[in-house]
Design goal:
heterodimer, A: about 400 residues, mainly alpha, ABC transporter involved in vitamin B12 uptake, BtuC, two-stranded antiparallel sheet, about 60% helix, B: Rossmann fold, 9 helices, 10 strands, globular
Chain lengths: ~400, ~250
């Protein structure tokens, strides 16, 4: 189906199902209940899930397949965002040209940085990409202020000279990004009993792009090109003595993943039309590395899971504060309650990084294949009766 | 003129003259062995032939074209394949994928952006890969991960990866180094078999006299970076200069 093997097609269907039903799946708890704070089905977060999913899928094409660890991919995401906002300012509020230009800009930018950085491999490559990304960040933050808006970031204004469309709406507001009149921020809310489900236009557009991105990544993984990339990771000596030039292959992978990052950046700007230099910072580059490794580098679905997990932690775990904790443990005697809260407190709220760090360490030590490997281990437990397909490795390619 | 012509190669590493005025001619269709004691410059010579090292002076031509200054992948595309002392294979890939990759390299050249086509649709390449695995008796292991193969099988796989490209010249760098007796015999038989079936020109660097004398048709003896003699195995065995430089210490 669609040029995919049965197994891959099933995976694609699962991803389509999950993304389309996300407003339900992420809102399992009734509105107003104790557990409602664990609901992730609000537009802003759902958009982030899929956008960072795209970012991680693209990163995985470079890191998961070729093993080249780029520490500067946020630069392409940032460049894409700036490109998109400029399109909103100059051309029109339609998101399609904005997204297209963000992919093109990120592609060209990654071609330049990749061409130089790929002269080295291993840690030197990582450092080169990191240096380039930090340079881009510094430039965007200061020198290039006329283009990037500097510290405040690039925003829309009431006097933007938009070629197609108006500078301001009839009511004197800045127009919002839309897809042929369908506003990105518009949502349809559906109340079912105590539950409230939100269907957001922007989310569904981003989700469609993620499905497309995921489909493309399956095709790349299963193509001769993808096989060459894995060959590069495995043995570069044999690669060159087999008559293959590793450099254009890695560069192509670098540019493709840069374009994925640009797509993510363009979508981010389409959801909320502003772009800031902090999107290019090294912490943002590091985050996508974490997502990919946490989910399972070199696996198809892993990066999406990793992105979802990190964004969930960042947005949900960080919201739990001391008062909520006290509420949970109110049934305990006072002294004990305070003790338990004091023990848990460092791991929640602003301390969510600590929890994430621990989870990350556990995954890297016990599940080097990431969450995907964890899933496979669990699946293997249930399938004990058929031990012949207890293959421990999902990064296992192509067959 | 030979398929491979090496003329007046010099290579110094600092104060060490690794190769001094080396001339070598490998005739098309022959199996040429290069032997010599440790440090004679055999591996240096091989690295020059495959483009890994650039000599200080001299020329290397293959099939009428100069090899010097070309990158290893370009030299491979000219038709020279190399088997390494320790098998260089794609350990993280399956045996089948290991042999598919050289098929793609042969068909599509050093780089092609075939990112959308599916591997599963490449029936021609798959048939080629199946055929070569059948030739080296590894067809039943095609789905195994290459890293899980035995050492002898890794050698076979590497050989298959070279052969599937149908090279004009196959360079072998001590193909039996560190092997058990049985594996060595297997490798000799494999090479003999390849010679009979395909008639590929081979240049082999080897330490093991047993291997050399049971395979080679011509032998060049290197000592301290210069060729001493080049002759047939029978003449080499009795050659006084060779005995002095090399065979005196080995059992023949």
């Amino acid at each position: 189906m669609l040029g995919l093997e049965k197994k891959d097609f099933r995976l694609l269907l699962i991803v389509i199902g999950l993304t389309m039903l996300a407003p339900f799946l992420l809102n399992p708890f009734p509105e107003g209940s104790e557990m409602a704070q664990f609901n992730a089905g609000y537009p802003d977060l759902m958009q982030r899930f899929v956008i960072f999913g795209i970012f991680a899928i693209g990163f995985n094409i470079l890191f998961g397949l070729t093993g080249y660890l780029s520490f500067g991919h946020a630069a392409f995401l940032g460049a894409g965002s700036y490109g998109a906002v400029w399109m909103f300012k100059l051309l029109s509020m339609n998101v399609l040209p904005a997204i297209a230009i963000s992919v093109v800009i990120a592609g060209l930018f990654s071609l330049l940085i990749g061409y130089i950085s790929l002269r080295r491999s291993g840690i030197y490559f990582s450092i080169l990409t990191l240096a380039f990304a930090q340079m881009s960040f510094a430039l965007a933050y200061s020198v290039l202020t006329p283009i990037t808006g500097g510290e405040t970031g690039l925003q829309l204004a009431l006097d933007d000279p938009r070629i197609f469309g108006v500078s301001q709406t009839a009511t004197g507001n800045i127009p919002v990004p839309a897809l042929f009149g369908l506003e990105m921020r518009s949502s349809f809310e559906w109340e079912v009993g105590a539950w409230l489900f939100t269907f957001n236009t922007g989310y569904y557009l981003a989700a469609l792009f993620m499905i497309l991105a995921f489909y493309m990544s399956i095709r790349i993984f299963r193509s001769p090109f993808g096989m060459m990339l894995r060959a590069i990771k495995s043995n570069q000596t044999r690669m060159s003595y087999t008559g293959l030039n590793a450099k254009p292959y890695t560069l192509a992978a670098f540019v493709i993943s840069g374009m994925y990052a640009g797509l993510a950046g363009g979508l981010m700007a389409s959801m909320d039309p502003l772009a800031g230099a902090e999107r290019m910072q090294w912490t943002a580059s590091g985050e996508v590395v974490l997502m990919t490794i946490l989910g399972g580098a070199g696996t198809l679905i892993g990066p999406v899971l990793g992105a979802g997990m990190i964004k969930y932690f960042e947005n949900i775990f960080s919201k739990i504060n001391e008062t909520i904790l006290h509420g949970w443990f109110a049934f305990l005697p006072d002294g004990l309650e305070n003790f338990v809260v004091a023990m848990i407190y460092p791991f929640i709220g602003k301390g969510w990084h600590l929890t994430l760090g621990i989870v990350f360490m556990l995954v890297v030590i016990f599940l080097p294949g990431g969450l995907v490997q964890g899933g496979q281990k669990i699946a293997a437990l249930f399938k004990r009766s058929k031990p012949e397909d207890a293959k421990p490795n999902a990064t296992e390619p192509a067959e | 003129m030979g398929l491979l012509e090496v003329k007046g190669i010099n290579k110094r590493f600092g104060g060490l003259q690794a190769l001094g005025d080396v001339n070598l001619s490998v005739a098309e269709g022959s199996l040429h062995a290069i032997i010599g004691p440790n440090g004679a410059g055999k591996s240096t010579l091989l690295n020059v032939l495959v483009g890994k090292l650039i000599p200080d002076s001299g020329s290397v031509s293959f099939d009428g074209q100069s090899v010097l200054g070309r990158k290893p992948h370009e030299i491979n595309q000219m038709g020279i394949s190399r088997v390494f002392q320790t098998p260089e294979i794609f350990s993280d890939l399956s045996v089948f994928e290991n042999v598919m990759i050289p098929c793609f390299a042969k068909r599509d050249g050093a780089f092609r952006m075939h990112a959308i086509e599916s591997i599963f649709a490449e029936k021609g390449i798959q048939a080629q890969a199946d055929a070569i695995l059948d030739d080296v008796n590894m067809l039943e292991k095609k789905d195994m991960l290459a890293s899980s193969l035995s050492r002898g099988d890794k050698r076979r796989l590497e050989m298959a990866m070279c052969l599937v490209q149908d090279p004009k010249l196959l360079l072998l760098d001590e193909p039996t180094a560190g092997m058990a007796r049985a594996d060595t015999e297997n490798t000799i038989n494999l090479l003999k078999d390849i010679r009979e079936k395909r008639g590929i020109t081979m240049a082999i660097i080897e330490h093991d006299m047993n291997v050399v004398f049971s395979l080679a048709e011509r032998i060049t003896v290197l000592a301290q970076g210069t060729p001493l003699v080049e002759d047939t195995p029978d003449n080499i065995k009795g050659h006084p200069k060779v005995r002095e430089a090399y065979l005196g210490e080995a059992q023949v």
